[in-house]
Specification:
six-stranded mixed beta sheet, 14 strands, four-stranded antiparallel beta sheet, alpha/beta, Alpha-Beta Plaits, 11 helices, Rossmann fold
């Protein structure tokens, strides 16, 4: 659905993005993850034909962004970080206006309007002035204008910026429901956002892509050991030493918890040690409450990749 090859954008001596390459499959939700200034918005603006690239190539739904920009724009819904809203209009007036701009036939406008009002939960506020809406509702109106022509591709730049926790959850749910029907690229610098709504992530740092994969695969690739979290009700002073004797255990870390005592057991990769640890805890009468594998979080993955990239650049 989206193919990007060696995309580069320079402003004089400043390189915003360099040799950016990736593909997005039809119906996929992809997170473009990176800190502010990493190049996310620049890439999105190029893909939406808002600005040209210095070099490289890209196509959306089979149309070249350089040679066929109008065809690309017809197939894209774009929600910039600050939604392009006319605050003196009501929600219905604004979305009707947008439907005309996007070339929706008169006979289809009523149905298109009803569809996006329902999908973005705007029906109750459809007659209100946009200027009187909360930040969360304005963001929904911005998403509705991106969706009203039912585009094949949605490009959402920081869609939850400025929302409160309840609004963030609601917006994430709306985005997740778009999977399959639309191909979505979602940019964010908020790590839990990528985990919550996206099937794959692209991590970009200082204008370069440093990783592309699912969060779970990225975690597995960077893991140097397995970690298991054990919560015990009645551990003994020698519990940590006893755990260290188990074959394959590298180290044991102990920390207090409201539910008991927590032991983080670090083990060799390649073998599941949980059954052996559970058996030991039961046999010793330590009161096993919980035993779970600890995954490398997306935050850990992001920090590790970007730190390694910075070190390599400085070398």
């Amino acid at each position: 659905m989206i193919h990007v090859q060696n995309l580069t954008k320079r402003y004089g001596d400043l390189t915003a993005i360099e040799d950016v390459s990736f593909d997005v499959q039809k119906g996929e939700i992809l997170a473009f993850l990176g800190p502010n200034g990493a190049g996310k918005t620049t890439t999105m603006r190029i893909l939406t034909c808002f600005m040209p690239a210095s070099s490289g190539s890209a196509s959306v739904a089979g149309f070249d962004i350089f040679d066929q920009p109008q065809e690309v724009k017809k197939r894209i819904g774009y929600l910039p970080e600050s939604p392009p809203l006319y605050t003196e209009m009501t929600v219905t007036e604004y979305l009707t206006f947008i439907s005309k701009i996007k070339g929706i036939e008169r006979r289809d406008r009523t149905q298109a309007l009803a569809r996006v009002l329902e999908r973005c939960a705007l029906t109750e506020v459809r007659r209100r002035l946009i200027g009187n809406l909360s930040r969360g509702y304005r963001q929904r109106v911005g998403l509705a204008q991106a969706l009203i022509h039912n585009p094949e591709v949605l490009i959402l730049d920081e869609p939850t910026t400025g929302l409160d926790p309840k609004q963030i959850i609601e917006m994430r749910q709306v985005i997740k429901e778009l999977a399959g029907q639309h191909t979505v690229i979602l940019s964010t610098h908020i790590l839990p956002e990528a985990t919550a709504v996206c099937q794959r992530v692209i991590i970009i740092h200082e204008g370069r892509i440093v990783a592309v994969d699912t969060p779970d695969r990225l975690s597995a690739q960077l893991r140097q050991s397995d970690k298991i979290r054990m919560t015990l009700k009645t551990p003994l002073p020698e519990t940590a030493d006893a755990l260290k004797i188990v074959p394959g255990v590298l180290s044991v870390f102990h920390e207090p918890s409201p539910d008991g005592q927590v032991f983080i057991v670090e083990c060799d990769l390649g073998r599941d040690h949980r059954a052996e640890l559970a058996s030991l805890a039961v046999h010793r009468g330590w009161g096993l409450v919980e035993l779970t594998a600890v995954k490398l979080s997306l935050e850990d993955v992001f920090l590790k990749l970007t730190q390694e990239e910075t070190k390599e650049a400085a070398a």
